Amino acid sequence: MAEHTVELPTWLERGLADLFPALAPATSAGADPDADNCLALRLQEAERQGRPLRIKLGIDPTGTDIHLGHAILFRKLRAFQDAGHTAVLILGDFTARIGDPTGKSATRVQLSAEAVEANAATYLSQLGQGQPAERSLLDFHTPGRLEVRRNGEWLADLDLPAAIDLLATSTVGQMLAKDDFSRRYGSGTPISLHEFLYPLLQGYDSVAIQADLELGGTDQKFNVAMGRDLQRHFGQRPQFGLLLPILPGLDGVQKMSKSLGNTVGLDEDPLSMYAKLEKLPDALVGDYLTLLTDLDPAALGAGGRERQQAMALAITAQRHGLAAAEQAQRDAAALVAGAEAAQVPEASLAAVSFPATAFYLLRALGLCASSSEARRQIQGGGVRLDGEKLTDPNQTFAAPDDLAGRVLQLGRKTFRRLVPG
Fold it and tell me: pTM score, two decimals?
């Protein structure tokens, strides 16, 4: 039997949670694995042929913010770009209007086309479009390394016969095997018929762009496998599925999610980003190092403050540059030192009339000279409450208990711990 090198490159294996097919068995006894069943051989084949692989990553623009949990997939996509392959970033402008049912216990609210497109613009900006190359999460600059596609290009024109043909490739039993559908069906929670379409449409994206490999989180295996099935159905070479872990949030318990308030956003300022990461539970530092940096976790030891700081500095530097990250590290240390020496200065809520809007609160506490200045500070992103950015000047706090004990931050240097009176 001929011998083949079937090892994957180190950059590809890093952080890998699942690959399918893996180093698949031979198609017949004594035969060698082939490039349809062994990703290492597919990579070798592509190199011999002088063609880049087409690496698919689909995202539905259902919100406005990208956080570090999302960045894991984009970093791996960038690694494929840097290895000379073509990243095909699919913005699900069509599928976002249905909503991915993965992880949901109820039917998602359908978005308007206008809302989806506005969200897509913010996603691209955060990924690096129009930004300096050294700060971009994806390579928007090297010709041939990135295709940005919207799946409305092909899905919006599917006629009824084509949709029926697509539906005929799967069964109700297969759909109910998906964990989320199974739980909802078992509990009597309604499942709308259009939700069954989502995995099929997402899978059809792989057919439309002729993907060689699709990236996804471990919760996306059903959808990625659907893409392989549909490629076979349409006579294409099936893609590989490469899955990465779901990043735990800052609480160390649940996955990183904005709704849970345990995120680090890509658009956060350097000090906030660094300060949050520096306080990460020690048990998670190894995962963050592996999935979000190029540092060698083994070289940094098993634990300790220096390991946390190295991780926080590296991640912050990727987004804001080394100089800004180092300044954030110094600022965070100064803040901690000040808090230990004299605590954060207190501000009494006794003179504040409730219910109180955010802009009024800043003026009433004497942190801003006028309501207009307070509005500008909030709208400019310079105000935080317990590290979370306040974005709405009219956000209302009903009573002192909503604020007591919390730290209000204005800019980088002004901190006040709010006390009842």
Answer: 0.77
